[in-house]
Design brief:
Strand content: 35-45%
Oligomer: single chain
Pfam family, one: Neprosin_AP
Protein name: Neprosin PEP catalytic domain-containing protein
Largest sheet: 9 strands, antiparallel
Order of helices and strands: HEEEEEHEEEEHEEEEEEEEEEEEE
Radius of gyration: 19 Å
Number of helices: 3
InterPro entries: Glutamic_endopeptidase, Neprosin, Neprosin_propep
Keywords: Signal
């Protein structure tokens, strides 16, 4: 239990890397207000500047590609705006020095997110902690919410391991965090924390290695009117290199291997992760008001797609065999039932189960959600 509590008290063929080349972008694309992507030489991206990656060789794709799957019926998968970077370059969100410094500080002093001892943080999700596990994947809905400048709301899948007071952790999903991103939009994101408590978001500082030429790890999402959109993410350990990949699995289109967190960043994830999970998390404002989670509605077991949802949650075991998450001992994590809810998906008689192992979660938040 101590290991789990330490872990959950976190969050919020190769080519030799060359040095000495110019980091001037070969091309830049402005896709919206205050959002510009620079096309940087893949070998000169900031992710490779981490001192632990001095001799790292870039892995261009996972050793074993994931099979492309059809999406569950009725799912509208997000169509991200692709950044058409030239060959040999990758898209990197342009940040100010101040933003990069803030990202480093937040990464090292990350707001605890899955701990009942974390003031103002609330969660609703499921987790399995009898690893080792080699990966986790899920379909999950993204939402557009109206939250305060100092509130945070997000949904994610994650893997991690802990020992004594040390924790290694990786998560990816969608997030609304106005004070961090500079606006109230929904963004995709990735986060890691590794050796010596170091960590970071996205590509704001060194660590994550972006590989996709067109799909960045961090990107604002434009929602069609009155529509929600879905992500299908897969965090998985490479069978040969031990690196931890983030893949966006396709639905009617090819999978996108966005990039990876090199194994050198971690000291507790060499042989898999001890814990995997999925769910929603919020951080209250300084005044004590908690934001909406999911789509702001309590779960309705009879209408699973009308609230926040993770479907087809699956886990890779220590031998890279894929199972539904409930194949393993799985527990519910819900710390504020007055403001948020969670239900495990049920089977409907005479209806095929296209959702696999799924959960509904979310709620309206408020000022009486506890600490």
């Amino acid at each position: 239990m101590a290991l789990v509590m330490n872990l959950l008290s976190l969050l919020f063929s190769g080519v030799l890397v060359h040095s000495g080349q110019s980091t001037i972008p070969l091309k830049s694309f402005k896709i919206g207000e205050n959002v510009t992507y620079d096309c940087i030489d893949i070998y000169m991206q900031s992710g490779l500047g981490h001192p632990l990656l001095k001799y790292h060789r870039i892995q261009m794709k996972p050793s074993v590609p994931r099979t492309q799957l059809k999406s569950p019926t009725g799912i509208n998968k997000v169509q991200k705006q692709k950044i058409p970077c030239p060959d040999g370059t990758i898209p990197v969100w342009r940040n100010t020095k101040e933003f990069t410094t803030n990202a480093q500080v937040l990464g090292e002093n990350h707001v605890p997110f899955l701990s009942p001892d974390s003031p103002g943080t609330h969660l609703a999700g499921v987790r399995s902690q009898n690893g080792p596990y080699r990966g986790v994947e899920a379909w999950f809905k993204m939402f557009k919410l109206d939250i305060a400048q100092d509130q945070v709301s997000y949904g994610h899948i994650y893997i991690g391991s802990g020992s004594n007071n040390e924790v290694n952790f990786i998560s990816a999903g969608w997030m609304i965090n106005p004070s961090f991103f500079g606006d109230g939009r929904t963004w995709t994101y990735g986060f890691w924390k590794g050796k010596d408590g170091k960590g970071c978001y996205n590509t704001a500082c060194s660590g994550f290695v972006q590989v996709s030429q067109t799909v960045p790890i961090v990107q604002p999402i434009d929602f069609p009117p009155d529509r929600s959109l879905w992500l299908h993410y897969f965090i998985h350990q490479d069978t040969n290199t031990g690196n931890w990949w983030l893949t966006e699995l396709g639905s009617g289109e090819p999978n996108v291997d966005i990039g990876y967190w090199p194994k050198e960043l971690f000291n507790l994830l060499d042989n898999g992760a001890n814990i995997v999970g999925a769910g929603g998390v919020v951080q209250a404002s300084r005044s004590g008001s908690s934001p909406e989670m999911g789509n702001g509605q309590f779960p309705n077991a009879d209408h699973p797609k009308d609230s926040g949802i993770f479907t087809n949650i699956e886990v890779l075991d220590s031998n890279y065999v894929q199972h539904k998450m409930n194949y393993f001992p799985t527990e519910v994590v819900l710390d504020s039932p007055k403001c948020y809810g969670l239900t495990i998906g049920k089977k409907f008689i005479f209806k095929p189960n296209k959702l696999g192992y799924y959960i509904n979660y979310g709620g309206p938040g408020g000022t009486s959600c506890g600490v």
